[in-house]
Amino acid sequence: xxxxxxxxxxxxxxxxxxxxxxxxxxxxxxxxxxxxxxxxxxxxxxxxxxxxxxxxxxxxxxxxxxxxxxxxxxxxxxxxxxxxxxxxxxxxxxxxxxxxxxxxxxxxxxxxxxxxxxxxxxxxxxxxxxxxxxxxxxxxxxxxxxxxxxxxxxxxxxxxxxxxxxxxxxxxxxxxxxxxxxxxxxxxxxxxxxxxxxxxxxxxxxxxxxxxx
Length: 213
Description:
Oligomer: single chain
Keywords: Membrane, Transmembrane, Transmembrane helix
GO cellular component, one term: membrane
Transmembrane segments: 40-60, 67-89, 109-140, 161-178, 184-207
Pfam families: CDP-OH_P_transf
Radius of gyration: 17 Å
GO molecular function: phosphotransferase activity, for other substituted phosphate groups
CATH architecture: Up-down Bundle
């Protein structure tokens, strides 16, 4: 399967137009890197994500505070998170169980990013708010799908790749400026909230219009 063919399949699965911007770049990188993993079960790849996120939290909060290593691990988490579904599509192994497992793991990863922000100094209230917005974001899509609306609608600024990228950039910046880690954690959390609120409004507008028709 070529990358162009995968984009067509991705758009069909998500009920939207071909991805653009950061999402498209992310998918291109993941497509190239996932090729060696096509021999593995995609569900096994999915289950590996939370393990890696736990490792990132450990290295970022350990006495040595290895932010650079944590940044690399979170980047790998994002890639693995893209690999599972990508491998499933490329090997024709998509399944309802795989989709269910992927949804659960995705939410665990969102919580993991929030925990990273908290252990590095972000106010608990703001980090919990950011996580909650992300969870509501995904719940809106799941609920709409559950009542028969199969279209994603739009690609928002706070999609999963953006949330992963935010975590990677924050940890990398913390590695460069460890003395500013608390300020950086606050900035990352506020950025997550800001993008999340914009995305919430966008999804609410689309679903309100579509579901009333």
